Amino acid sequence: MSDRRFPAWRRGSTAAVVALVVTASTAVVSAQFGFGRFRIQMAPKEMPDRAFTICRLMYQSVRFEADGAGWRTDYPDGDNNLLIRFSELTRAPVSKSGRSPNHWVVRITDDALFNCPYTVASDVGTMGLRDDEVLKLRQYLLKGGFLWVDDFWGTLAWQHWSGVIAQVLPGYPIEDVSLADPIFHTQFVVKKKPQVPRYPFWVATGGQTSERGDDSREPHFRGIRDDHGRLMVVMTHNTDMGDSWEREAEEPAYFQRFSVDGYALGVDVLLYALTH
Class of 3-275 per CATH? Predict the structure, then answer.
């Protein structure tokens, strides 16, 4: 990657995402790991460096959602691929061991949570939190932490998650975040809230995107702000942004339709978390 290409990206063109990821997508196939063969890396007490990284929240599921896998959903390839592209598409330093990005799993009650600049959770329509986890996650967020929850679909999943986060952050309202918000143009200009289906659903249905039919037709990007107006929790509901990264090399048509927009949004959110 040459520095002379970087200014074009700063002007907000997602063409840079296409050019870079198409070139590298063939190599990604050999770098993908099945969950059963991937060793979970728990967040250490002390991070190996001060560069940017992702921590995935480990939680207990208390209900079931079709095609969900609880905290493991989109792990590890979604986190791994997003960090790879983040390191290629920005100048932000990314934590690495050799050439591979470091990304971690963290228990909410572990003190290592407070070393995580950014956390993610998927399938949160099934999440259950104990009282000590509620308290620890509240402390993390109000001390400046950031959480992105993704890949939960339909009314029941939303009702469950909104009840969970209301326990964590009582009195903090959830808002629909406008496309005019700075989070949508920290680097790329995101002009829509994409609906990304999981790859097997998209193939099996001949290209449909709403995984719960009429109950999930509209994708949402919602958030909770702290007392200073900073988004500390963002929520992508009725969409699976994680699959746009995890499944980038499955099929060119899927990549073109979903991964380009997915990486643009992913980079913007990570930059927002890093700079706010």
Answer: alpha beta
